[in-house]
Amino acid sequence: MIRTDPETPDLYLTPVEDVFIRNHLGPHPRFDPDSWSLTVEGLVERPLRLDFRTFQGLPQTRFTAVHECFGNPLRPEVPTRAVTNLEWAGVPLAAVLELAGPRPEARHVWLEGADRGDFAGESGVGYLKDLPLDQAGAEVVLTHTMNGEPLRPDHGYPVRAVAPRMFGTNSVKWLTRIVLAAERPEHLFTTRLYTRVLPGERESRPAREKDVSSKLLTPRDGRHVPVGVCELAGYAWSSTEVAAVEVAVDDADWQPAELDRRGPDPSWQRFRFRYDLAPGPHRIRCRATDSAGRVQPLTGDRNAVHEITVVAG
Ligand SMILES: Nc1nc2c(c(=O)[nH]1)N[C@H]1C(S)=C(S)[C@@H](COP(=O)(O)O)O[C@H]1N2
Ligand SMILES: [Mo]
After folding, report:
1. What percent of the chain has pLDDT over 90?
2. Which of 77, 169, 298, 304 is the most buried (most CB within 10 A)?
3. In this structure, what are the phi and psi dihedrals at residue 88, rounded to the nearest 5 degrees?
C-alpha cells in the first residue's frame, strides 16, 4: 500500500500527520502493550523475550533524524523525494544486545516486523531487514516515540527500529523479532530488492546510507510570487553532514546558498538563497554536496537535483 504523499511542510520537524506511510504488505498487525513482545534469538548467549514494560525500563535515548523513503524498490533510480525530519525516542539496540550477549560468531543482526503479505509476486512474505552487527549496535535505536508522541499504528506501534543515517526501508516497523546470525538473510527485502550498484562500483549493495540530497520547499512548486527579491529555501541532508548547497535560477550559474550547520544528530540542514526575480516564469534548482565530497547528479538517479518552477508577477 503506497498512499499519495502529503506535501513536505517547510518546518524543521515534520508534523506526524504529514509523514508519509509506506506499508509494503497491506494491513498490518495491531498491537496493544500487552500483546506485543520482542524476542532476541540466534547466536546469543541468553535468548530473550521482552514485554513492553521491561522494554520501557531499559536505557532511553532521544535524537532527531531525517526519515526518507528510498523510493519504489522496483524502480530505484526514480526520485520520489518523500522526506521528513523527526524527533525519535527509544532504547538503543546496544542495550538489548548487551542483555542477550551476542556470541563471537554473530556478524549480522536481522530485524523482523510482524506484518505479512504479498509483494512483487511473492505471497506470504514478512518484512525483514539486516545490518552488520557492529553498525547495528552502534546506530540502531528501537523507538517507541515520534515527535514526543507514541508511534501511531501505521508508523509501527508500539516499537520500530530506526537506523538514523539510513533510508527508511531499514527502519523496521512493528518490530517483534531480532535474530543474530553469521550470514545475511536471503530475502525479498534484503538481497533481492533494495539493492543497487552505486556509480563507479560493480557490485550491487544494499540500500542503506542515505544519498546526498536537497529539496526546495519555499516557495512551493508552481506558485505565483511577487516580482523582486524572493527567498528560496529548503533542506539538504545526507548520511554525513552537508557541506554546501548551490542554487541556480534559470540559466544562471550555480551560486552558493547560505547553509545551517548540522548538529551531532543526522537531521536535515536549512538552506536559503535570495534572488531578484524578474516578471515571468523561473526554473529554480538546488544541489547539495556532502562532507564526503558526494554531489547530487543533475539527472538520472533517485537523488537528482530538485527543480521547481515559480511565476513572478
Ligand atoms: N514492518 C515494516 N517495516 C517497514 C516497512 C514495511 O512495509 N513493513 N516499510 C519500510 C519503508 S520502505 C519505509 S520508507 C518506512 C516508512 O515508514 P513510515 O511509514 O513510518 O513513514 O518503513 C519501513 N519499514
Ligand atoms: Mo520506502
Report:
1. 95
2. 169
3. -115, 155
